[in-house]
Amino acid sequence: MTSFDVQRVRGQFLILQQQINGYPLVYLDSAATAHKPECVLQAMLDFYRTDNANVHRSAHTLASRATQKFEQARQRVADFLHARRREEIIWTRGTTESINLVAQTWGLQSLQAGDEILLSAMEHHANLVTWQQVARQTGARLRIIPLLESGELDMQAYQAMLSTHTRMVAIVHVSNVLGTVNPVADVVRLAKQAGALTLIDGAQAVAHAPVDVQALGCDFYAFSGHKVYGPTGIGVLYGRKEILAQLPPWQFGGEMIRKVTFTESEFSLPPLRFEAGTPAIAEAVGLSAALDFLCEQLAAGAEVYQQQLLQRLLQGLQQIDGVSLVGQPAARQGVVSVVLAHAHHHDVCQLLDAQGIAVRSGHHCAMPLLHSLGLAGTLRISLGVYNNETEIDAFLQALRQALELLHD
User: Fold this and answer.
1) Among 85, 121, 162, 217, which is least packed, fewest CB within 10 Å?
2) Which residues of 204-237 are buried (b: 16+ CB within 10 A; e: fewer)?
3) The whole model's pTM is what?
4) CATH homologous superfamily for the domain 6-30+301-403
5) What letter does residue 227 receive in the DSSP assignment?
6) Is 365 a residue of the active site?
């Protein structure tokens, strides 16, 4: 294994020190939500204790300090994503709202009958359902890029589907079911050649490896704070400045206006145009601290460490009778799903919980993907920066025991 000091990292996560059902907690569900290090909790607590005030709305000292921290957090996100400027960063409640923002502004404004939206067969419901509804409202056609047997995007089919009718390609960076890392830069490059815009769902990507939106070339990129060791209730939408400037607001109220009369309103420039009402200020501060934490871990070797853990998990699963991996992508990050020959995934999940092991069972908000594979659900294991070899081994042993019990 790499020299990454996981014990030092685990010291930041007090939640991991507890026992569940008399066993040490083994948390293997970070794809659903990641735990929060003490530095994130402290940053939010410090804000509430010393700087709490509304932002952008007053000249008093607390408001000025709150606004400064809020906008510094926006700059931190811009730096993290390698955006050109902080005005390209919009605060949302999470990836789902970020996708909806693009669909409800650009989508409803730009799409019409005859236009096409391309999604992959591995999309989360947040991406699929959103564009599905926009297609119905506008008359646009939704087309699904198929997958190879390996669980990878069929790039040959994708290239053949692109045409002058393609207006938007909205695709997940890393699958929350298969763990597949999509070749996003190539997807974007081909979409550009066809004259289409691109939206990347980065919810499962940002916690595992650096992201550079300029290198990717995408028009929009979305992720959630809670999956990158930050608080819930805060998310990010990156959008290229030239495109954001053309989009209408999608929610209305305070903060997003420049001038209001009884008959008309003049709206703020992006990003404030898209941030109606009081924002999640402390959560933005917490997300900034989370990104500091994550970048520190990545610099210390967390990306390689997590890949080594993943390989240990995959090798162990392949040695257990009755366990089959869902997908065999060449590039995978953080997520593994399995089907069980002689047991129901939910029953196994409960037996694992009895030994303090947290994994997830079900369709993982990707029902069409699982149905296309002939599956009703899977057992999903997902890794975080705080997991270690002992936990992987404990999970594998508990899984063997659960399967033996249910098979008998």
Assistant:
1) 85
2) bbbbbbebebeebbbbbbbbbbbbbbbbbbbbbb
3) 0.97
4) Aspartate Aminotransferase, domain 1 (3.90.1150.10)
5) G
6) yes
